[in-house]
TrEMBL record, chains A, B:
CDD domains: HTH_LacI
InterPro entries: HTH_LacI, LacI/GalR-like_sensor, Lambda_DNA-bd_dom_sf, Peripla_BP_I
Keywords carried by this UniProt record: DNA-binding, Transcription, Transcription regulation
PANTHER family: ALANINE RACEMASE (PTHR30146:SF155), LACI-RELATED TRANSCRIPTIONAL REPRESSOR (PTHR30146)
Species this chain originates from: Albidovulum litorale
Lineage: Bacteria, Pseudomonadati, Pseudomonadota, Alphaproteobacteria, Rhodobacterales
Annotated protein name in UniProt: LacI family transcriptional regulator
Domain named HTH lacI-type: residues: 15-69
Pfam families the record matches: LacI, Peripla_BP_3
SUPFAM superfamilies: lambda repressor-like DNA-binding domains (SSF47413), Periplasmic binding protein-like I (SSF53822)
UniProt-listed Gene3D superfamilies: 3.40.50.2300, lambda repressor-like DNA-binding domains (1.10.260.40)
Length: 364, 364
DNA sequence: GCGGCTTATAAAAACGTTTTTATAGTCTTT
DNA sequence: AAAGACTATAAAAACGTTTTTATAAGCCGC
């Protein structure tokens, strides 16, 4: 007996259900049920077993549970690798999204794991692998395309997911979104009411679902004012500063160039401002720029710009919450939330006067 | 028999070693060994079993393997949650780091999982939980403190980890770093040789190990030029634009204010430029600013700034590679790499002339 | 031609859970 | 007072691997 037990300190192995069974005198079956709050075990027994678990710092081995139940206890996030290409700033703070999701998952038994994807199509393959191999119990992804293959696949498999952005081709999936149509529309309205008539929309790739929302909002603002929309002034590209600068150069070169600009994010805005400086133009005196901001950075631009601000970490948290609820079995149709960003008015702060000037200049 | 088998399509369960054993006629033990390239099994047998595995798209269940071996097949990244606080831009593109690590892990059997931490101390607790519960086989983290509790703990446990940044209190751990001392020193030298004598160092919290490196480089540049360092012009704080702006205001209010600035990252730089505009100063005519850049964004500042550029995704990839090698048993002392960022000269492009002006102004 | 050695594979145990099935004991019901 | 229902717990099986131990066959030396 004494020869069998180690004579030094024990290897301090992690406690298991067996440990708790021996401690309390119950069987491992009862221990497991008690810890999982099964109704078949007495409250008193539960209390005793839980006390033992507490005292010894027991934590269930998720992999063993996973093996038995088939659940993975992993929540997967598909992170676009494009964020890292060309080392060009894109102004998408993915870390904030991850942070938000992670916070929502805190306290649950789910671990956050990150899978890189190159684009939506690659994302579909990764999603398929996740589903096939049981790598996760639910998936979150962003950059929703108009006809998103990930949404289509996961919907068809009835696999829990939450998208950051709506996708109209699938019926009733869970998503969290920003009211991009309203943002673009409201910004355009502000510029129109400030006297601008030639307004450019700096937009993402038109294949993104929210790109269409922005165009719709942009057009609606003109229609509301009884004007024809400036469809020729819609620039489409990636979300980098380089694209913002190039767009400005191209747009200002057309006949009857725009005097107002509605930007899609702060990286493009920064590039656009640099482009204005290239041409010796000022975003105060010569043109008006309205941005969309999720990094709170437009305040530091020259000049500080009017922006629609949406802390993206809040979106992330909502994504995480929805994913938990979706994995718990809630219907996807109930898990929809659209955030409306907050307007932070800065430049153009005397938009009406500035607009007046533009209009007069155009007439002259 | 027919009554026993389902009459519709089978549930299409994932293939297991058992499936392969039945297919090939070997035992599951042999199958397992063949797949793991054990030397005890014939090459011919291996080939047969692998062909079967290939044909049926077999992929081992990592959780079952994990249960048996104790390995988790997870690589953990400790991501500072501070990136998301106050919604203030900090200019740390953590997604790029994650992307780099993830790329390095591609093809290995390791999954990337993300754990949020509040600070280094909290990181220690999370690391301890990871080690205790076997949540991962290796850990990557950044923001190394002078006396980092995570480094101390993991070193003492001999648990594989790679730090982004050196830590001198522990002996011989694996790390990837940026030569911050050289960056700060070289930037300071440039400003000194441009005629600047009062130079400010915009630095992170002094408790970060690299903050000390920067101060050392800063001082060395003065010593090298036979000058006394401007220790009174070292500003210390977080890496936000707000801190950059506030620092500028504070530093310009002292008697004999700085004419040169060495910034720690692009968020502080952006704030500093905003602060200069607040005071009606120009980073072209009145003062000189040199930045450190990992987002390639200084090009779009007003004016575009000279910067030391280091794509952080490369660091991430190196972190991932080192972690794999560390988990494979390599000695930590061999896994050290220090990147030296590339100088991108922009403003001040006629530094010598500008410096002259500053010096003359100071004399007058 | 047979004990011992090597070789190729098989059998079985183990990892830590959860879940199904079994087993006593107690309580109803008539 | 005995059959049946219910209750609380125990025993056992299962998840899919890996690893240890066992087994049978072939070969060697003499």
């Amino acid at each position: 007996m004494t020869a069998k037990t180690a004579h030094r300190s024990a290897p301090a192995r992690r406690p298991t259900v067996k440990t708790l069974a021996e401690m309390t005198g119950y069987s491992i079956a009862t221990v497991s049920k008690a810890l999982n709050d099964s109704p078949v075990v007495t409250d008193e027994t539960k209390a005793r077993i839980r006390a033992a678990a507490e005292s010894v710092g027991y934590a269930a081995n998720p992999r063993a549970a996973s093996l038995r139940t088939g659940k993975s206890f992993q929540a997967a996030v598909l992170m676009p690798i494009s964020v890292a290409e060309g080392h060009e700033w894109h102004g998408v703070e993915y870390a904030e999204i991850l942070s938000g999701i992670s916070r929502a998952l805190e306290g649950s038994s789910y671990q956050l794991s990150v899978h890189l994807i190159r684009d939506a199509e690659d994302g579909r393959n990764v999603a398929e692998r996740i589903v096939r191999r049981g790598l996760a119990d639910g998936i979150v992804f962003s950059g929703i395309r108009r006809n998103d293959p990930r949404v289509a696949y996961l919907s068809s498999m009835d696999f829990p997911f939450v998208a950051m952005g709506h996708c109209d081709t699938a019926s009733g999936h869970a998503y969290v979104d920003i009211d991009s149509g309203w943002v673009a529309g409201d910004a355009t309205r502000r510029l129109i009411s400030g006297g601008h008539r030639r307004i450019a929309l700096i937009n993402p790739d038109p294949d993104f679902a929210y790109a269409q929302d922005r165009i719709a909002g942009f057009r609606a603002a003109f229609a509301q004012a009884g004007l024809a929309p400036c469809d020729d002034l819609i620039a489409e590209g990636d979300l980098t500063a380089r694209f913002g600068r190039e767009s400005l150069h191209r747009l200002r070169a057309v006949t009857d160039p725009p005097t107002g600009f509605v930007c899609v994010n702060e990286a493009t805005t920064l590039g656009l401002l640099a482009g204005l400086r290239d041409l010796g133009l000022s975003a105060e005196a010569d043109v008006s720029v309205i941005s969309y901001d999720d990094l709170n950075v437009s305040e530091y631009f020259a000049p500080p710009l009017t922006t629609y601000f949406q802390p993206v970490e809040e979106l992330g948290r909502c994504l995480g919450e929805f994913l938990l609820r979706r994995m718990a079995g809630e219907a996807p149709g109930d898990l929809v939330r659209v955030f409306r960003p907050r307007l932070i008015p800065r430049q153009p702060d005397r938009l009406a006067d500035a607009g007046q000037t533009h209009q007069q200049r155009r007439k002259a």
